[in-house]
Amino acid sequence: MPRKMHLVAYLKAGPSASYPSTWRHPAATLDDLFEPERWEKLAQVMEAARFDARFFADGLGIPDLYKGRYDDYLGRGGQLSLLDPMAILPLMARVTSHLGLGVTLSTSFMPTYMIARYLGSLDLLSKGRAAWNVVTTARDFEAQNCGHEGLPPKEQRYDMADEVMEACDALWNGWDEDALVLDRKGGLFADPSKVRYAHYRGKYVSVRGPLSIPRSPQVRPAIMQAGSSPRGREFAARWGEMLFATPATKADSLAFRTDIRARMEAIGRDPDECKILPSVTVVVGETESIAREKAAYLESLVDPELVIASSSWSVVADLSKIEDPDELDKPGSNQGVAGHRDRMMQVAKDKGITFAEAVRRPRALVAGTPGMIADMMEDWFASGACHGFILPPTVFPTTFEEFGRMVVPELQRRGLFRREYAGKTLRGNLRDPG
Description:
TIM Barrel, globular
C-alpha cells in the first residue's frame, strides 16, 4: 500500500492568516467573524475534504514591534486573534466526528494544571481529537501581558516546556481507564484506588493533582510543535507528532526532516511517529491562466506596510530600523523565533535578493490547476521532504472550499490521500492515514 500524506489547516481567529491583506478580497467573509456558524461550517468543509486536523495559531496580545506601535498591524488587518480559540474549538467539535482540533497554548505562562484540564476536557468531548500546538512564547510583549517583565532565557523556556510536558503527562495518566464505575445500585461513582496524585516537582514546574478530568481517549493530545533552533528541535524530537515547518525550498524541508529523524533516533524514538508538515499557500484555478490571474489579484491587495509590520513580528525586531540580519542578534535578547528568520534567509538565498528585500515580500503563492498543485505536493512528498502539508487560507473560507473540491480529489485519484478516515482518534489517523 502506498504512503499517504497528511493535511492540516492553519487558522487564525481573525480577519486573515499568514498571507497579508486577504480580508480585503471581495470573497472574504467579514460580517460573520463572531458568529459560531462561521467556524462550524469551516470545520465541516475540512472534514468533508478528509483533513487530518486544523489548528489555531495564536498569540497573547497585539504586536507593536513595527515603529513601536500597533497602528499598522492592527489598523491594516494583520494576523489577529479576535477570539480565544479555546472558545471556538468546542463549536467545531460539536459538528464533526473525525477532524482533529488543535489549539496553541504557551508553556511559559499558562499554569500546567489548567493546560491539562482544558486539553483533557477537549479530548473527552471530541472523543479523542484534541491537539496541542506547544509554544514557549517568543516575544516580550506577550510576557508582559501575563504579568512578567520579559521572557526567561531561550534555553530556560524549553527546559520549562519539558517539565510542563512531564507534569501534564503525570496528570493525564493519573486516572486509569476504568476508574469511572457509575454503579447506581452499588452507589460507587468512581474507584478512588484507580486515581492518583501527580506529585510532580521539577526545577520550574510543580503540580500536586489529581487531575479532576478523567482519562481521555488519547490520554495525551496529539502534540504539534514548530521549534527550529537547535534546542527547539531537541524538544520537537522528544515530544512532537506534527511539526509545523516553514522552509522556503524542498531542499530546506528535506534537510529539516533529516535532522529531526537523526535526533529522534539518537534518543531511541521511532522517527515515523513524527510528521514533518511544511506550510504551503495555494491558489487553485480551473486553468493555469485563471490561477495566475487570481494570484496576481491577491498580490495587488497586499499592503506593503502590513508586510513589513508582519515581518517585524516574525523576527521580533523593528524592521523600519533594521535591514541587516546580523543586527537582529542583540546582546542579551531572549526574543525571537528561529524558524521565521531561517525562512527569510532561505528566501533571500533562493531568490538572490537581500534580507531587507526578503522581509518586504509576502510569502510565495503556489498558483496552478489542481493537477499542477498536486504535482508539487507529490514531488515534495515522494522525495521524502515531508509527510504532508500545513495549508493556511488565502481567502477565507474559499481557499479550503476550492482545495477540497478540486485538489483533494486529484490527490485521492493518485492514491496519495485518504478517501475515508481510518482511525477513531487524531493520533489514530496520524498513524494510519488510510
